[in-house]
Design brief:
This protein has about 500 residues and is mostly beta strands. The chain has three helices and 36 strands.
Length: about 500
C-alpha cells in the first residue's frame, strides 16, 4: 500500500512539473527590441512625451515612437533570451510605433508612414508582424518589405514585397476586426509567395488592388536596395547580390561635388596688379599642393591650376597669369557645409516664430513651456538635439476639455480592436489595488483596468490621421507604471 501511495505521489509531481513547464514555455517568449544602428536624424519619442536622439543599444519599450527623418535610417534588433531573431530596417521618412509589450509569440510594430524591411530568416521563438491601418504582414522565416503611403486626400496604400520565404497578409476593417478579401468578419489571411508583391487599399472594407504579382528591382529606391544588399550578404534572396548591386548603382544618389571652374579675370573677386622689370617667380598654393610659376623674359607664359573638386572644408584656389611686365592674381573661395557652421533653428509657438543659430551637431535652447489661453501645452514635435541641418520645431497644444467619468454600471473595455461590453457593478472588477486608465483618441474614449504598478495596455492603435486631418504624434503622458486613475490623450498636430 505504501508503494502504491509513493507511486501516486510521484506521478502527481510529474504532472505538476509538466504543467509548470508548459506554462513557463508558453510565456517565456518575451524579447527585447534595441537600436542596432542609427544614421542621421533619428528620434525616439517616449510615452511621457520626451524625445531623444536614437543611439546604438538603446532599449525600446511599448509606446515608443521611432522617427527616421530626411536622409536618416535606423536598424532595430529583436532578441529573445539573447538570440537574434529579427532585424528591422527603417528607411528615411518613416515612423514606427512599438505597440506590443514584446512578450508575445508574434509582436506587432505599427508602421505609421514610410517603409521598413524585416529580416526574419531564422526566427525561432518569436517574430515581428508589421501592421498598418488596414492590414498586417507576417515576417517569420522571411525577408519582407512593407511600405505605407498615407496618400494626399486619397485612401492610404499598403505595399508588401517578399524577397525570401513567405508572408501572410491579414486584412482588418475599421473596427479592427479580422476580415477576408471579401469583407467577411473572422476571415483568414492571404498567403504571399516568394518574390511576390501586393497592394492593399484602405477602403472600408480594405481591398487588394493586386496580390502575388512579380516584383522587380527597378521598382525600389536606393535606400531599399542598400538594405537588401546588406541582407543578401547574410541570407539567400530571390535576387542575387550582383543584381541588387547593379540596381543600386543605377539609382543611387550622385555624390555632391563642387567643381572649381577655370578662373578668368571677370570672375575674380580680388585682383592685384604690380609692375616688374626683372625676372620673377609667383607661387600659387592650394591646401593640398604647391606649384611654382615663373616667367620667361623673352615670351609671355600663362600658368593656371587644374579644376579642383572640393568635398571637404573651405579651401582657397588661386590662378595666376604672369607676363614680363605685370602679374595678376585672381582668388576664388569655395565653401561647403562644415562642422562649426551655425545652423538656423525655427521654433514655432502658436503664431510666434523664434529663431536660433546653433553650431553644427549642437543643441538648441529649449524655451520655457508656453502658456496659451484655452490650450494645454503637451510637448514639442521634434528634438532640440544633434542639429545638422535647418530644422523647424513646433509646440504642441490641445484644447482644454473636461472629461466626465462614466457613472453607469456598464463600462466599455476595449482590447486591441475587440469590443466587449461588460454589464457588472464596478466593484466586481475594480478593487483597491486596480486603477482605471481612460484613453481619449480623436474624441473617442476607451477604458482599461490596470493593477497597481503595472503598465496599461494600449487599447487601440490611434488612427494616423484624425478627423481634423492632423497626424498622430504621441501620447501625452507615461502609462508604464500606473498608481492611480488617469486619462491619457492621443496627441495630434
Amino acid at each position: 500500500m505504501r508503494r502504491i501511495r509513493i507511486a501516486v505521489i510521484a506521478a502527481a509531481l510529474l504532472i505538476v512539473c509538466a504543467v509548470v513547464f508548459i506554462v513557463v514555455s508558453k510565456h517565456s517568449s518575451g524579447g527585447d527590441l534595441l537600436i542596432s544602428f542609427s544614421e542621421g536624424d533619428v528620434t525616439v519619442t517616449h510615452t511621457d512625451g520626451t524625445a531623444e536622439s536614437a543611439v546604438e543599444n538603446m532599449t525600446l519599450r511599448q509606446g515608443d515612437i521611432i522617427t527616421a527623418n530626411d536622409g536618416a535610417s535606423c536598424t532595430l534588433l529583436f532578441t529573445v533570451k539573447g538570440r537574434d531573431e529579427d532585424y528591422i530596417y527603417i528607411e528615411p521618412f518613416s515612423q514606427v510605433f512599438v505597440t506590443d509589450d514584446l512578450k508575445q509569440k508574434d509582436n506587432e510594430l505599427y508602421l505609421n508612414r514610410g517603409a521598413v524591411i524585416v529580416d526574419g530568416v531564422g526566427a525561432k521563438r518569436s517574430s515581428i508582424i508589421i501592421r498598418t491601418d488596414s492590414a498586417s504582414f507576417a515576417t517569420k522565416n522571411a525577408v519582407v518589405r512593407v511600405a505605407y503611403d498615407l496618400g494626399e486626400g486619397e485612401p492610404s496604400l499598403s505595399h508588401v514585397a517578399t524577397f525570401s520565404g513567405y508572408s501572410d497578409v491579414q486584412l482588418y476593417n475599421s473596427m479592427g476586426e479580422k476580415i477576408d478579401l471579401y469583407g467577411n468578419i473572422g476571415g483568414k489571411s492571404e498567403p504571399m509567395d516568394t518574390g511576390a508583391g501586393g497592394l492593399v487599399k484602405s477602403s472600408d472594407p480594405p481591398k487588394f488592388v493586386y496580390l502575388n504579382t512579380e516584383i522587380k528591382l527597378d521598382e525600389f529606391n536606393a535606400a531599399t536596395l542598400k538594405d537588401l544588399l546588406t541582407i543578401s550578404s547574410m541570407n539567400e534572396l530571390v535576387f542575387s547580390s550582383a543584381d541588387i548591386k547593379s540596381a543600386f548603382d543605377a539609382v543611387k544618389p550622385e555624390e555632391t561635388e563642387t567643381s572649381v571652374p577655370e578662373t578668368t579675370e571677370t570672375e575674380s573677386e580680388t585682383s592685384v596688379t604690380t609692375e616688374v622689370t626683372t625676372e620673377e617667380t609667383t607661387e600659387v598654393t592650394t591646401e593640398e599642393s604647391t606649384e611654382d610659376t615663373s616667367e620667361d623674359t623673352e615670351t609671355e607664359r600663362e600658368t593656371e591650376t587644374e579644376p579642383v573638386t572640393t568635398t571637404a572644408p573651405p579651401q582657397t584656389v588661386m590662378t595666376t597669369t604672369t607676363t614680363v611686365q605685370t602679374t595678376t592674381v585672381h582668388t576664388t573661395v569655395q565653401t561647403t557645409t562644415t562642422e562649426g557652421e551655425l545652423i538656423p533653428v525655427y521654433i514655432v509657438i502658436d503664431d510666434e516664430i523664434l529663431e536660433q543659430e546653433v553650431p553644427y551637431g549642437g543643441s538648441a535652447d529649449i524655451p520655457n513651456d508656453p502658456v496659451i489661453e484655452g490650450k494645454r501645452f503637451i510637448g514639442w514635435d521634434d528634438s532640440f538635439d544633434n542639429i545638422t541641418g535647418e530644422r523647424t520645431i513646433s509646440a504642441l497644444f490641445e484644447d482644454e476639455i473636461s472629461v466626465t467619468e462614466p457613472t453607469s454600471s456598464s463600462d466599455e473595455i476595449i482590447d486591441w480592436g475587440t469590443y466587449v461590453e461588460v454589464t457588472v457593478e464596478s466593484s466586481q472588477y475594480i478593487s483597491t489595488s486596480a486603477h482605471t486608465v481612460t484613453f481619449i483618441v480623436d474624441g473617442q474614449s476607451y477604458t482599461v483596468v490596470v493593477n497597481d504598478g503595472e503598465a496599461a495596455a494600449v487599447p487601440i492603435v490611434p488612427p494616423p490621421i484624425d478627423s481634423n486631418g492632423q497626424s498622430f504624434i504621441a501620447w501625452d503622458q507615461n502609462f508604464q507604471n500606473v498608481t492611480s486613475d488617469m486619462t491619457v490623450y492621443a496627441v495630434y498636430g
